[in-house]
């Protein structure tokens, strides 16, 4: 989540980033300057990871001729947008590349930046919830999943619902106008504190609790299927699962648990900080500044943990990643008779026997 920083407090030592006669550079404390460097670095690292991850997912989606809209792809795109806006906002403060807060950029930064970035952060969290619910429906109601939930219209509605929740939760930033002179007084009013408390609960804690509940149900269902297969019985409305399909369900259920735990670690402290946000604490306290840097770095890298999780768990994802990374070297080294990297093999959608496997998320493990 993005928060407001008060650059002009007279209670800390100002620090010019370029020179004393450069009036376009923002004056800020050493702690805040360090924060900006770490924020930009974490956004850059996370952006590179997200770009590689998106390349793998787009390649797989294209080769398997899957549905045009996929939750996993949408999450990856939103993570890149978050990190782009997050990183670009640091450049004027650091006085890099000649970018300054002037004209349209000044208007966007003062009135829309907090709303845009935090809306995307909130939508990202609820898209993780939708991804876990998608697996829940696939495992518990496979016939309904195939008949209704996999259609693009339903997926678009889910994505728009996540963006709408994010926008509603962060309208407070447009109301507050955080960089206006009256923002501090407005933030101390009873109505804004109540609004801020409700939105923080919905944005962070409700989202995390939904992840916990549906991840638990998915993991419980996976064990139930294993137990039933071990006894040689059936599960009534749940169709018979192949060993490979059940393995995919089990891995996906575990990954949903990892998503939930990492979300709680990265976002719930932010939810508390968001509610008690104080610009003085944000700038002056070195311990809180270091803690905030750690949380910021953790949150930026959380945006794409699936690069490491999927590469470790999915043979298909791992082989595709290696293929994409090797291909530029093969192109350069053709004159040296470099061996062409082997293309990963995957099963197209029409060959899948289980309705729960048509989603790209589960397909990663069904083909592994």
UniProtKB/TrEMBL annotation:
Gene Ontology MF annotations: G protein-coupled receptor activity
Superkingdom of the source species: Eukaryota
Subcellular location: Cell membrane
Record keywords, A-Z: Cell membrane, G-protein coupled receptor, Glycoprotein, Membrane, Receptor, Transducer, Transmembrane, Transmembrane helix
Primary location group: membrane
CDD domains: 7tm_classA_rhodopsin-like (cd00637)
TM region positions: 40-60, 72-99, 111-133, 154-175, 195-216, 251-270, 290-312
GO annotation, cellular component aspect: plasma membrane
Entry annotated with the keyword Transmembrane: yes
Protein name in the entry: G-protein coupled receptors family 1 profile domain-containing protein
Protein species of origin: Plectus sambesii
